[in-house]
Design goal:
CATH superfamily: Porin
Oligomer: single chain
Shape: globular
Mean pLDDT: 86
Strand content: over 45%
Number of domains: 1
Number of strands: 17
Helix content: under 10%
Radius of gyration: 22 Å
Structural class: mainly beta
CATH topology: Porin
Distance between the termini: 42 Å
CATH class: Mainly Beta
Number of helices: 1
Length: about 350
């Protein structure tokens, strides 16, 4: 771990010194989206109408030696009755060099590939607002982190490797003036890796692995916090098929009971079909199973199925998703049906 830290810090230090840059360019990007959502079942609630509350402010430039840099931050109002206080999140600063890309991320830069299976017409449905309770592997984007990416096209078969390190387990997003953040009492640091490849036309393969260390040098945990995922997606003609599988082994301290979860196993797949250039249809199925340290402990799988359709007219897209959630929060018979309508304008 110390070697990884020293390598990443050395890479940053060696490339950030004595480099002058030309004036950068400021950009504003994002999408304008309106949604209408209905939920029925055990989580029956109000019909919800929403409007996009996030835009991305970006800046980019080029150094004298041809290297390029990119900065980005999201403006994301909080959910309040007054309309939301302006919050800044998902920040990043990247430097693309001849030797790869160096980056620092705040609540961004995730390397977990669990969602790499999605061929959905609208979205990876368990990554939207409804809280179905599905547990996914940890992601480095939960922490302030720094990364190195190998240059695209350097390795055969489209191989690319990424490594990320978060020196603190704290999930606070820090500004450039931050100092002496209080340590997380449960997590020390996190390291994460990702490998991707495109061996043939239309095929993408991704794998990721992450590990959280114990806080304050603790070494007596029954189980370390580790997780990994693999995703494969293949597109041929109008059809796209994706599958993924992930395992998440949470930290287990010395206190182990019959209800202690040993690991969570997720299996996902989706099929997308482009009817024509404007209309897309899809079906996805996601299953999440909790496994306990005691085999006799009863558990209930959390399952999600989603039918989606999207129609695009120039810069406007209209999408509908009909999703069924079984055993929300891994609770037996806690079933929910959700219908989501979204109108999106790109800019």
């Amino acid at each position: 771990m110390k070697k990884i830290t020293k390598i990443l810090i050395s890479l940053f230090a060696s490339t950030m010194v004595s480099l002058s840059a030309f004036a950068g360019e400021l950009t504003v990007t994002g999408t304008a989206k309106a949604t209408y959502n209905t939920v029925s079942g055990v989580a029956n609630g109000d019909n919800t109408l929403g409007v996009t509350n996030e835009i991305t402010l970006g800046a980019s430039g080029e150094l004298e030696n041809g290297w390029t840099w990119n900065y980005g931050i999201n403006l994301d109002p909080a959910n309040t009755a007054e309309g939301g206080a302006a919050l800044n999140d998902d920040s990043k600063l990247t430097l693309a060099t001849n030797f790869g890309t160096l980056a620092v991320f705040g609540s961004d830069g995730g390397l977990n590939v669990s969602g790499g299976f999605s061929a959905n017409a609208y979205a990876w449905i368990t990554d939207t607002a409804f809280g179905e309770g599905k547990v996914e592997p940890n992601n480095i984007s939960d922490h302030m982190n720094m990364q190195y990416h190998t240059p695209a096209g350097l390795l055969p078969l489209g191989l690319q490797a990424k490594i990320a390190y978060a020196p603190s387990g704290a999930k606070l997003v820090q500004s450039g003036n931050a100092s002496n953040t209080l340590a997380d009492t449960a997590v020390g640091s996190m390291t994460m890796y990702q490998i991707s490849a495109a061996p043939i036309d239309g095929l993408s393969v991704q794998a990721s692995y992450g590990e959280l260390t114990e806080a304050n040098g603790v070494r007596d945990d029954e189980q370390k916090d580790q997780s990994g995922a693999i995703a494969v997606k293949y597109a041929t003609g109008p059809v796209t098929i994706g599958v993924s599988r992930s395992l998440d082994a949470p930290r287990i301290a010395n206190a182990v009971t019959a209800s202690t979860v040993e690991y969570i196993e997720n299996t996902n797949y989706s099929i997308g079909f482009a009817v024509n250039e404007s209309l897309s249809l899809s079906y996805s199925n996601e299953s999440s199973e909790r496994n306990f340290v005691t085999a006799a402990q009863a558990g209930f799988d959390q399952d999600t199925q989603s039918f989606q359709a999207a129609y695009t007219m120039g810069g406007m897209s209209i999408a509908i998703a009909r999703s069924d959630y079984e055993n929300v929060g891994y609770v037996s018979n806690a079933d929910v049906t959700e219908t989501l309508l979204a109108v999106t304008m790109a800019f």
